[in-house]
């Protein structure tokens, strides 16, 4: 499932298929997080650093978990802080 608001694919280098194949081969198609068979390539650190050191083979479940967590963190800083009412004494305890 792709994110409808993501522009990640348009920011990938033109030779992404070759880079992806190289990383999967380098990592022997094994997920860098859990060791299961991997079919995807992940940017370990956020951003557009497409260097081999920042890329790793990853399985679909780990990629979904990592992407969901990162997406939640990204929206958390954009959300306005919660307003809280000041604590009040219970009316029966006055």
TrEMBL record:
Region (Disordered): 35-94
Domain HNH nuclease per the UniProt entry, residue ranges: 18-64
Keyword ATP-binding: no
Entry annotated with the keyword Hydrolase: yes
Keywords: Hydrolase
Enzyme superclass (EC): hydrolase
Pfam families registered for this protein in UniProt: HNH
Family annotation (Gene3D superfamilies): 1.10.30.50
SMART domains for this protein: HNHc
Any one Gene Ontology molecular-function term assigned to this protein's record: hydrolase activity
Top-level taxonomic group: Bacteria
Biased composition (Basic and acidic residues): 39-52, 85-94
EC number: 3.1.21.-
Protein name: 5-methylcytosine-specific restriction protein A
């Amino acid at each position: 499932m792709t994110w409808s608001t993501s522009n990640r694919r348009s920011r990938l280098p033109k030779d992404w298929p070759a880079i992806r194949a190289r990383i999967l081969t380098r990592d022997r198609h094994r997920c860098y997080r859990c060791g299961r068979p991997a079919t995807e390539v992940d940017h370990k650190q956020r951003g557009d650093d497409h260097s081999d050191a920042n890329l790793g083979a990853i399985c679909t479940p780990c990629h979904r978990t990592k992407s969901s967590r990162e997406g939640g963190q990204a929206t958390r800083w954009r959300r306005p802080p919660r307003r809280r009412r000041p604590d009040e004494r219970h009316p029966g305890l006055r």
